[in-house]
Amino acid sequence: MTRSLRPSKVTASMAKSDTVNAGLPALSLKAFNLDTNTTFDVLDRAQREGAAIGNAERPSNMFFRTTNKTPYWYMYALADWYRSEVSIFSTIIQRSVTEIFRYELELRPKFVRKCEDCGYEIQVETKRCPKCQSARLRGPDEKQKEYFKNPHSGKSFLDDANKNHQTLKDVLKMYAASEYQNNQAYTLCVTGDIYDKQTGRLIKAYPLEFINIDAKFIRYLYDDRGTPGTEFAFVRSDRKNIINLSQDPDELDAYSCNGEELYPAFWQVGSSYGGAGEYWLYSEEEIYQDQWFRPSMTYGVPILYDIEDDMLTYHYLEKSKLKRYKFGFVRKMVILPGFTDEDVEDITKGIKDVLETNDNSIPIVCTPPQMPGTAEMKAQVLELDSPGEDVMKDKDDIRTRLCAHWGVPDVFAGDVEASGGMNNESQQITIYDRYLTDKYGFVDRQCRWIMSWFPKITDWELVLDRPSKAYSDRKKRLENMQEAQMMKNLGFDIYYQDGEFHYSEEPLDQIQRKEQEQQQATQGIPPQGPVPDGGLKPGDGDGPPEKGTARREDPEIGQTEDDIDLAKREASDAMEI
Q1: Residues with Cβ within 8 Å of residue 95, at least 6 apart in sequence
Q2: CB atoms < 10 A from the CB of 4, how many?
Q3: Three-point CA angle 402, 292, 440, nearest 5°
Q4: Which of 172-193 are b and which e, b meaning 16 or more Cβ less than 10 Å from the residue's Cβ?
Q5: Is the preceding omega at residue 71 within 30 degrees of 0, hence cis?
Q6: Angle, vertex CA 263, rays to CA 4 and CA 209, nearest 5
Q7: DSSP H helical segments within 105-239, as ranges?
């Protein structure tokens, strides 16, 4: 691969890719007395000392490829068909995505106060850094939000994520819908590249827009061992020309690179299925992708294939019902007794001719007059394909299995009959909330990828608010106010910022006492320790101290005890007399 290139032609990102993919064994690292975080030093030192580090290649295995459907894009094309034809599948996707993004996407401060000396981020309101005791603290910088603006429109990416004027929340929702359908989704960051015209070296790439790419039109570029970014490269001045890195070095220099810097190609996005047709090449960091349900090293396999028979059954049940109601009647068979065999053949042929034209029609049959001495003939009609209780039961059973497969409650799929009251519904929603917790982790990871394109934004993070089934927004605000009032009563300092209450680490009286002790220490006044148990306290009385303690007796209590003892002695003397 890149070993065929001259060292000056290999970019930093490509060199990093080769080093990481090498997978150096721990024994080689120990031999050079270096830890595992200094892989580049190991390679450099090994090369200087004439050593070789081997046994670091992956095995060639079909595990790295998608083999369930061939070619891979056919899986996603078939998934499109299922979504358009199976109504319950489309409902599951829509309800799930809507529930995940029930609340807003926003830039939220990472901290309440940050120490300007040591950089420690504090999550509560305080006057001093708990790490270095510095008083130089600051809040989140509001000016950093200016970097999170679309250069085309001047609006925040939250409100204008691309030239189609989608919000960033819309982009994430489309990504989530593709995950539910295909178990594979892609988000592309279209960048403006500033590069050197002479060498083609990238100077800076800044984001212009975030868009979603259909999984059918992307090809993941990797070698036969499943390692991406090792077979092909491209130059920044021409993203439509793929360069094969397995060529001879001399041929490689003369092949469309013109001495420019080469960058590893990880993704090929085309105008046709499989990234074919007119295509564009992108590096690793420019496209974000993962699989939510069944992780894979290359392409994600839609999990609907795990329950494909149920989906097809549901599909054909719906199609049968569509034909029945589309023509306004069901297919019927007409029985006419009293005819000879020849007459039956003629009538049967006529019925067959009519049904070949429209199999849902009811053929019109003329009956002959009644013959003398024969019983009266009465035509009978038998309806075929009538929906019975078994059919509806099968549909309900399939709907339940489909909902369980994607973790969606039956009530979310429109099955209101399955709910057995609020207790059952609450239980279903509780399980659903638990199921969505995993999906929020994927959304958070994608948000971190988006924010990685804005290195100057250090005080803010992109966060999707979490839904809660138990509390409404109003009740949550009331609870926060009640909590703030309780903290105030306990003596804590309260600070309100960005819609949230923040509290000091310690009560105010405790802080004041510490400051007073520090002031006394500077003045040479010895600190006063706490009063031990049993010591002098207000209201202890004026009598002599009790035995073994420093506590004084209460004269009233002592007089009462003397009176009780005197009464006991008098009663004892009277009994003896």
Answers
A1: 408, 412, 413
A2: 14
A3: 100
A4: bbbbbbbbbbbbbbbbbbebee
A5: yes
A6: 165
A7: 168-182
| In the block, residue with structure tokens 């099955």 | 415
Residue 568 to residue 574: CA distance in whole angstroms:
10
Hey, which bits of 163-275 come out as E strands? 185-195, 202-213, 218-220, 232-235, 238-244, 263-264, 267-270
Tokens matching residue 304: 């609907």
Amino acid found at 61 = N
Amino acid 319 reads: K
Grouped pLDDT means (10 residues each) for the chain, 577 residues: 35 37 34 45 63 67 58 87 91 90 90 90 87 90 93 92 94 96 95 84 90 94 85 88 79 63 92 91 94 88 90 87 68 61 72 69 62 66 58 82 84 55 61 80 94 94 74 68 85 78 83 81 68 48 52 57 68 60
User: Residue for token digits 């019975």?
Assistant: 388
Q: Is 356 exposed, middle or buried (0-12, 13-18, 19+ CB in 10 A)?
A: exposed
Using alpha carbons only, give the angle 81, 85, 90 rounded to the nearest 5 degrees: 90
CA distances from 63 to 57, 60, 216, 225, 288 (A): 15, 9, 20, 9, 22
Per-residue pLDDT at 470: 46
How far is the CA of 553 from the CAs of 126, 449, 533, 541, 562, in angstroms? 46, 73, 16, 6, 13
CA–CA distance, 293 with 438 (Å, rounded to integer): 10
Secondary structure letter of residue 156 according to DSSP: B
Q: Which two tokens stand for residue 356?
A: 């070949």
pLDDT of residue 382: 56
